[in-house]
Structure formats: C-alpha cells, structure tokens
Amino acid sequence: MTDGTNGRRRAEPERHRGAVTLRRESIPSSTADEKLLDSHHRREWKTKDAWRSLRILSEFVEGFDSLADLPPAVSVFGSARSKPESAECEMAADLGAALAEAGYAVITGGGPGVMEAANRGATEAGGMSVGLGIELPFEQGLNDWVDIGIDFRYFFVRKTMFVKYAQAFVVLPGGFGTLDELFEAITLVQTKKVTRFPVILMGSEYWAGLLDWIKKVLLEDGKINEADLELIQVTDDVDEAVQIIVDADAALAETHGQR
Ligand SMILES: C/C(=C\CNc1ncnc2c1ncn2[C@@H]1O[C@H](COP(=O)(O)O)[C@@H](O)[C@H]1O)CO
Fold first, then answer.
1. 245/86 Cα distance (integer angstroms)
2. Could you tell which of 81, 86, 160, 201 is best to mutate to test the pocket of ligand 1, judged by most ligand atoms within 8 Å of the CB?
3. CATH no. for residue 203?
4. Which residues form ligand 1's pocket by a CB distance below 6 Å?
5. Atom of ligand 1 nearest to the CA of 180
6. Whose CA is nearest to atom 16 of ligand 1?
7. Please, where are the H alpha helices in the chain?
8. Distance 139 CA to ligand 1 centre (A)
9. Alpha-carbon gap, residue 80 to 122, rounded angstroms
10. How many separate domains does the chain show?
11. What is the atom index within ligand 1 of the atom nearest the CA of 131?
12. Which of 87, 91, 99, 126 stands 20 to 30 A from 202 (CA)?
C-alpha cells in the first residue's frame, strides 16, 4: 500500500477547477461549494449565483459524459484517514480486487485511505478504477490508482454520480463523510428514489454501536420500521459482499430485463 505518491516527493499543493490548475498564491482560500452555500458570501449571491448555475450544469454534463460508458460499477466508501496498513485498507484492497474480478468497476471518492486502497485493489486486479474527487481547501489530488478521475467542485453533483453509476454501495469504516454517503444511499432506497440496491457495511465491529443505536432508538421509537433495517446488510467477508451484489443484479435483471 502506498500514500499515493509512489515514493515520489509530493508536489506542491494544487487546486483543480475544471480544466484550470491553480498553484501557490493562486490557490483561493475558499471552495466553490463554500461560495454557493455559505451565507458569509451573501453579498455575491445576487450577482453570481445565476451564472454559478451554469457551472453546476457543466459539472453534471462532464460527469454524465465521462461515466456513461462505465461497465456495471460499485461505489466504495470509507475513511480518508485510514493508514495504508490498517485492517480496513486491507479489506478495501481485497474488495476492490474481488469486484474487479467479478467484472465491476470500482468508484471511490478518489482520495487517500480506504478510497485509495479500493482503487488500488481494482487496478492491480486489472479492473476499472474510478475516482470522483472533490475540491477541498486542503485538497491533495486524486490517488495514483485512479484510471478515470473527475474533480468536482460541488458535493451534490458528485453524489449524484456515486448513485447513478453504481449497482451497489459498500461502506467501510469512516467518519462524517462516510456516514453522509451511507445515510444518503439508505434514504434514497427507503424513499424509493432509486431501485432497491444493496447497501453493505463492512467492518462489523466498527459499525456495531451504530446498528445497535438504530435498532434501540430509531426502531423502538418508531422513526423507522422493521423492514427498513433490511436496507442495510453487514458482512466482513469480501466474497460474500460481492455475492450479495451479483445476486441483487441478477434479481433486478430478472424483474426489469437486462440493463
Ligand atoms: C481528510 C483528508 C483528506 C480528504 N480528502 C478526500 N478526498 C476525497 N473524498 C473525500 C475526502 N474526504 C472525505 N471524502 C469523502 O467522504 C468519505 C470519507 O470521509 P471520512 O470523513 O474520512 O469518512 C469518502 O468516501 C469520500 O467520498 C486527510 O487526508
């Protein structure tokens, strides 16, 4: 496992805005997402937001255009902070490889940690490895194992791509970013905004407390129902995770015809 530099000295920080690369003093202190969402920028809203919507649109166009030809794919989420030698990174690399061997492209956030491990596993197994990066104030660029990479300015555009082009979500241990991606997926399935697809948690020990709380508090308090619990599957076995995805794909093809 590497830190994505392949032993090279990491170049100076840079920021990508569409086709534009910014370095040194040209790197702005804010991000496009912040300018859109933070009321601190309220004075610009009147003059800039209408134009900003075109940039948002162009980001959708770029994503749709670049990803439309992907083979069936699985989005893999997990911590940006996990060390390469951690158990979750090893699991992510094995998962990336197993998904590639089963014919799935692997889509991640293109960052370090679990994302890099999953991309690496897929690439080393000869599969297609996709990274959907996001502009961050402390951006470090896409990891070196990404074959198709897109840098997004807007989180919500990027999130559309994770869902639209994936047959399943696999979620490994992570923090707020990972939880956001997990709960967005479950909500989309629960509200039937997307056809039911597997949302698989890997790292049962890590997720045990959350699952317990979901059962004890959300279920007992009537905030979700028993059937909602079935939206999440848990396994530590890479082959089982892949089999769940393959089976769900086959079931869907039977119901709706071949994709
Ligand atoms: C925090 C660090 C780097 C951040 N770089 C990221 N690059 C790409 N995607 C990211 C990054 N940070 C979060 N994400 C997305 O959220 C999930 C991970 O977030 P978590 O809070 O670490 O669980 C991940 O799946 C990404 O889609 C330091 O190196």
1. 25
2. 81
3. 3.40.50.450
4. 77-81, 109-112, 115, 133-134, 136, 174-178, 181
5. 16
6. 177
7. 32-37, 42-67, 87-101, 114-124, 155-164, 176-190, 204-213, 226-229, 238-256
8. 10
9. 17
10. 1
11. 8
12. 126
Q: Is residue 42 in some structural domain?
A: no
* Residue 82 forms part of a structural domain: yes
- Whether 43 is covered by a domain: the verdict is no
Tens-digit pLDDT profile for the chain (259 aa)? Answer: 444 444 444 556 777 776 666 777 777 777 878 877 777 777 777 777 778 889 899 999 999 999 999 999 999 999 999 999 999 999 999 999 999 999 999 999 999 999 999 999 999 999 999 999 998 887 678 999 999 999 999 999 999 999 999 999 999 999 999 999 999 999 999 999 988 789 999 999 999 999 999 999 999 999 999 999 999 999 999 999 999 999 999 988 888 765 5
User: Given ligand 1 and candidates 152, 178, 181, 199, which is best to mutate, with the most ligand atoms within 8 Å of its CB?
Assistant: 178
At position 156, the amino acid (one-letter code) is F
Is residue 39 in some structural domain? no
Q: 108: domain range?
A: 69-128+165-257
